[in-house]
Amino acid sequence: MQIVVTAVGPDNVRLADPIIHYLTGQGANIAEIQMYDHDEEALFAMMVRVHLPKAKLSEIRSALEAIGGETKLSVRVWSPEERAAKPRLAICVTYRTEPPLALLRAVRDGVIKAEVAVMIGNRANCRGIAEQFNVPWESIGESDGRANDDQMIGVLDRYNVDYVILARYMRVLPAGSCWKYAGGRIINLHHGLLPSFPGLRPYHDAYAGRMLTYGATCHFIVPELDAGNQTIHQSTFTVPHGMKLDEIVRIGQEDNEPRCLVEGVRRVVDREVQLHFHRVIARQ
User: Fold this and answer.
1) Residue 228 region, left (φ>0) first, then alpha (ψ -120 to 50), else beta?
2) What is the reported pLDDT for 223?
3) Alpha carbon distance 104, 81 (integer Å)
4) pLDDT value at position 22?
5) What are phi and psi of 144, to 5 degrees?
6) What gap in Å lies between CA 62 and CA 244, rounded to an integer?
7) Residue 125 CB coordination number (10 Å)
């Protein structure tokens, strides 16, 4: 059984040792390990991917949570195999309703074999969609839209979420949050083709470059920005010469972006792909 362990907390000495020693003492085969030690932020973070028998999962979870209490680390133990038949999703939203609506319909229709455990928003624009599909709604936004990132993590933990879907969620997750759900658990929809058109205005940038093909990218989020290629799926559409930018944006937002996100999430939920050392690989 594949097990992912993340540990995040105030920087100190020998924080990784008790976790690694415990896992290897259980006979774990370590498939991946990453550590982050940033003096300026005084932050320690670690992600370890191991293989152990399924029967050990509950015991390992309890033991590592106890180690986390002793070392003042926030420790999470997760396996994509624990609820492989029906993983629990959190859909994070801001303004656009089309991507979350497409996901909810895909789950309802069995295209995505998962359960939407919660919808999280820093704005209330998508609350009605959550209520329409009887999905719990959690607001984490201040009056000006600033997101409470600690509250978000608390919600994700409380709903026992497997994957976090950023469905045009217009806030950048801090590194600490990314590390807590590292290992290919955070999926983002970007409204442009990466790596050519990053940033907040990819439609405008592509239009300025006189492009006739536009697209969207579904990719894994990793703690380090610009860490490489984490693309899960891309979808494109071609427009005729002279089409106005407003119409291009409308087609992208209403049709292409939702379609891209649904297929990307389906690939992850069906475990066709996984993230390994910041690279998307086909599952063996």
Assistant:
1) left
2) 78
3) 22
4) 96
5) -95, 10
6) 57
7) 14
The Cα 116–Cα 103 span in angstroms is: 9
Q: Return the C-alpha torsion angle 57, 114, 158, 153, nearest 10.
A: 100
231 membership: H or E segment, kind and range: strand 231-238
Do 233 and 208 contact (CB within 8 A), yes or no? no
> What is the per-residue pLDDT across 167-224, written as a single tens digit (0 to 9) for each?
999 999 998 999 999 999 999 999 999 999 999 999 999 999 999 999 999 999 987 6
Report the length, in residues, of the chain. 284
Q: Which residue has the tokens 């029967």?
A: 55
User: Alpha-carbon distance 214 to 256, whole Å?
Assistant: 9
Q: Which pTM does this prediction carry?
A: 0.95
Cα 224 from chain centre: 13
What is the Cα–Cα distance from 239 to 43, expressed in whole angstroms? 47
pLDDT tens, position by position, 138-179: 999 998 899 999 999 999 999 999 999 999 999 999 989 999
| CB environment 53-75: b (16+ within 10 A), e (fewer) | eeeebeebbebbeebbeebebbb
Residue 226 is predicted with a pLDDT of 47
> What are the residues whose beta carbons fall under 8 Å from the beta carbon of 125, sequence distance 6 or more?
93, 94, 95, 96, 97
Q: Three-state DSSP class for 193?
A: coil
Residue type, 90: A
Q: Tell me whether residue 197 is exposed, middle or buried, using C-beta atoms within 10 angstroms of its C-beta: 0 to 12, 13 to 18, 19 or more.
A: buried
Average pLDDT (245-259) is 98
